[in-house]
Amino acid sequence: MTNQQDFIITLKNVNKWYGEFHVLKDINLNVKMGERIVICGPSGSGKSTMIRCINHLEEHQEGDIVVDGVLLNNDLKNIGQIRKEVGMVFQHFNLFPHLTVLQNCTLAPIWVRKMPQKEAEAIAMKYLERVKIPDQANKYPGQLSGGQQQRVAIARSLCMNPRVMLFDEPTSALDPEMIKEVLDVMVELAQEGMTMLCVTHEMGFAKKVADRVIFMDAGQIIEENEPESFFNNPQSDRTKLFLSQVLGH
Amino acid sequence: MKPTNRNGLTRLFYNPTARSLFFQALVLGGLLWFVLTIVGNVTTNLNARGISSGFGFLSQPAGFGISQSLIEYNETFTFGRTFFVGLLNTLLVSAMGVVAATILGVFVGISRISPNWLLRKISMVYIEILRNIPLLLQIFFWYYVVLQTLPRPRDSLSFGETIFINIRGVFMPKPMAETGFALYVGLLVAAVVGVIFLGQWAKRRMRDTGQQFPVFWTSVAILLGTLVLGFFITGRPIALDYPELRGLNFRGGMSLIPELIALWFALTIYTSTYIGEIVRSGIQSVSHGQTEACRALGLNEKQRMNLVVLPQAMRVMIPPMTSQYLNLTKNSSLATAIGYPDLVSVFAGTTLNQTGQAIEIITMTMLVYLTISLLVSAFMNWFNKRVALVER
Ligand SMILES: Nc1ncnc2c1ncn2[C@@H]1O[C@H](COP(=O)(O)OP(=O)(O)O)[C@@H](O)[C@H]1O
Ligand SMILES: [Mg+2]
């Protein structure tokens, strides 16, 4: 039996508009602790908007979003609570260019978690080692390659010890030779049991780690399935069309 | 084919190093010739008119009064003294202008992008109007329209019988040191040092234990407490000399002359519009992605502003801010138009008229502005380098 408690994220009948434009239509999604979900779909289908609603970077207008038992509404306290527990990695890294790699990683633990600097630095070094760039700790983001920057961004999120990680096309802005180093880190993270929602078109990654693949189009969830069935036996025509385009057949 | 001599010359002509050297030498030579011609001409003219050149006039008595002086001055002092009186007056109005324009400008710039609709519109109108009215006209506005319509001294606007405003300026009490003043200053210095140590202690404690300490409010309490309590403990070491109406004008106390006020207001307001735009574009130059990263990490709006947005905006703002400060300083020479005794008005104006030493005086005056500009630029460059972003 599953009940509300088993889900770390619940979206129930979520609707969102940009002015007249209906960008999210009746989204329902339940995510269990430790689940790895890959979200794909054509550009402009609302994938980013949906995951950005989860940490309230975007505001939804109808329906309920519950994260880790906290209902997302306009209460600043709830929003702060949720953002502490939800990490996010962006397509364009969004590292702080005026801070060193280490300072990027310790900023939020120190100011949000009120952690002593020494402890925050120790934790940051631990995660920088996990993303395999401890030797870059004292450099500035501008001195790193794209792949390294994205790994720093992942480490920066992990330093907050989040219960969920959101990824919004983390490899789309990278040169092909750097994609693998970032995906490797994400695979490791998945294998350690992190709850992940990942918008990506890297189908290899989806096949390897996803528990579920979700296909979105025009603001709706069209189809969701285990990767095996999703790729081999897509149900809707739109999914088939999309897959043929992405997989290049 | 054997390379001929002409061929070699042509090659030299198309050699970029030789070519640029040649043109630089040409320009330098032309410039030298121009300067020498002028100097020669002027010397001949001066000799013909019997005006001696040199800086001897600086030690002659000036024989004219100046309406505002930060150092002791009356007509028996020398022309050399008028130079310093004018220079200090220029520095005074520039410093007052820079401080006030920065405060006002930052406020206007932040209002310009505030979520509050009314504030946004008001600051937009403020900038658009005041930036497009010539500065000289604004100086005239404050001087002739606002300040000249103030009442005469005997009908002064009075604030609690201590501050008086009239057509002759603003008159206020002047603080005077009494016995115990040194002790009082000592206490204040001790308080400031204490606050600095407190700040460092709080920083260390935060690093080691993560606990934050309300440094700002504690510091304010310590400083204010020392200011007030120390005053009484040390036996009220400051007496106030109140301005008093005697005959046609006020005597005693301190005063700001209307020329200073008009010039200060106009420079401040005019420059604040530019600083406002610099602050706005500086903040907006920080990409939205930075804001999203802060929010996603759970930083609140104040932390986002102080730790991420402003440090980055500063880097963009420093160079244009420098040129605004320099502009303000140079614009302060419009003082002449309303008779504020700045360097240009006193030295390059009255002193020049009385001595006729145009070359010496104009050169000295230009060198002063050049020195101020270079000093400010050098400082800002140093500061800019210190905060520059490290890129690959
Ligand atoms: N701030 C916004 N204002 C108006 N429309 C927007 C805004 N952000 C996104 N959109 C629109 O919403 C749709 C979904 O965007 P998005 O979620 O970014 O798509 P995806 O990530 O799937 O490519 C797009 O058509 C986009 O143009
Ligand atoms: Mg997107």
Description:
The complex is a heterodimer of chains A (249) and B (392). Chain A has 249 residues and is of the alpha/beta class. Chain A has a single domain, classed as P-loop containing nucleotide triphosphate hydrolases (Rossmann fold), CATH 3.40.50.300. In chain A, 38% of the residues lie in helices and 25% in strands. Chain A has nine helices and ten strands. Chain A has helices spanning 47-54, 76-85, 101-111, 117-130, 146-158, 176-191, 203-209, 227-232, 237-246; strands spanning 7-18, 21-32, 36-40, 62-67, 70-71, 86-89, 164-168, 195-199, 212-217, 220-225. Chain A has a six-stranded mixed sheet, with helices on both faces. Chain A has a four-stranded antiparallel sheet with strand order 2-1-4-5, with helices on one face. In chain A, strand 1 and strand 2 (21-32) form a beta hairpin. In chain A, helix 3 crosses helix 4 (117-130), helix 4 crosses helix 5 and helix 5 (146-158) runs parallel beside helix 6 (176-191). Chain A is globular and about 50 Å long. Chain B is of the alpha+beta class. Chain B has a domain at 175-241. Helices cover 68% and strands 7% of the residues of chain B. Chain B is built from twelve helices and eight strands. Chain B has helices spanning 5-14, 16-49, 79-112, 117-131, 135-146, 181-209, 215-233, 258-285, 288-297, 301-331, 343-355, 358-387; strands at residues 157-159, 163-166, 169-172, 174-177, 238-241, 244-246, 249-251, 254-256. The radius of gyration of chain B is 28 Å and the shape is globular. Chain A binds chain B through residues 55-57, 80, 83-84, 86-88, 90, 92, 94-98, 107-108, 110-119, 139-140, 142-144, 156-157, 160, and chain B through 206-212, 287, 289-290, 292-293, 295-300, 303, 307-308, 311-312, 315, 387, 389-392. The structure holds adenosine-5'-diphosphate (ADP) and magnesium ion (MG). Residues 18, 21, 23, 41, 43-49 of chain A line the site of adenosine-5'-diphosphate. Chain B: InterPro entries: AA_ABC_transptr_permease_3TM (IPR010065), ArtM/GltK/GlnP/TcyL/YhdX-like (IPR043429), MetI-like (IPR000515), MetI-like_sf (IPR035906). Chain B: Keywords: Amino-acid transport, Cell membrane, Membrane, Transmembrane, Transmembrane helix, Transport. Chain B: One of its GO terms (cellular component) is ATP-binding cassette (ABC) transporter complex. Chain B: Belongs to the binding-protein-dependent transport system permease family. HisMQ subfamily. Chain B: It comes from Nitrincola lacisaponensis.
